[in-house]
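agent> Task received from the user: take the single chain below, predict its 3D structure, and emit structure tokens. No templates, no multimer pairing.
agent> Plan: (1) validate residues, (2) run structure prediction, (3) serialize to tokens, (4) report one or two observations.
agent> Step 1 OK, no nonstandard residues flagged.
tool_call: predict_structure(input=
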Amino acid sequence: MSKLIRAAAALSAVLLSASMTPVSAAWEPTKPVEIVVAAGAGGASDQMARMMQAAIQKNNLMKAPVIVSLKGGASGAEALIYMKSSEGDANKVMVAYSLIYMLPLSAKIPFNWRDLTPVAVVAMDQFVLWDNAAGAKSVKEFIAAAKAAPSPFKMGGTGSKREDHVLTVFMEKRTGAKFSYLPYKSGGEAATQLVGNHTEANVNNPSENLEVWRAGQVRALCVFDKERIGYTAKVTETQSWADIPTCKEEGLDVQYLMLRAMFLPGKVTPEQQAFYVDLFEKVTKTAEYKDYMEKQALKPIFLKGEAMLKFLEEDDALNKSLMTEAGFVAK
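)
tool_result: status=success, residues=331
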């Protein structure tokens, strides 16, 4: 047998062997995936988790079923510790928000977002200053009424020393008005308390006050962003999200955006992380996601890898600065 024939035979044997060797499939979950929510029922995080659950299932983005798990105990600390204690478990993924920076600072819980595995930033959420429909019709009127009130205006929110509480403190600093902050279990409950006149105002995410705004029970006074919300379709009979002025336009120069991001527990494999990066990138392309972004007035964004890590480091530093200035960092 010539060398050429022997070489050809050897190559054929190698190719045959390769064709008979099974190609290892990319990792994917084989049991139910738990989307962990660090908040109570009805809030923005719960609503986002259920949108993702529906998008994944309706579009067959994953074989395994998806369940939503509410772990809002201890102002969300329950979810953070639950995720931290689930190292290596790639069947749990958390919908995270600025709580991951703020709660460890205010409550000194043994948690750092770096304990987890970043997957993707999937949106940025806004905050709006809302009052009861029977209350002030502008920020100027609202601040004047707060200053003239015999006792501090009651402001509802979703957690002491968290985003809306920080915004309340900065409203005091910028205006000289006095507010009394009342934390509730969720943004949904804060909305109910405002409609019932148990509070004067709240600083809820758009999604948390959407239904009571549409029903004419609350008024959107301003949005805490450098620009107006971009959605122009009418939400109420007379207003779209884009009709809400920025707080700066109204003379209240306070701005804040909150991340919405997905995290796995620590010590998962690169293959497991890659699966979820791909999964949530697909989610952001679904009709359910796009519809949710507009209806709930979120800013669509998708960051992964180094871009996500850079964003998290900068956002962490910003939140620490705000918490320090507000006096909320535990000694």
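agent> Step 4: summary for the user.
The first helix runs from residue 3 to 20.
agent> Done.
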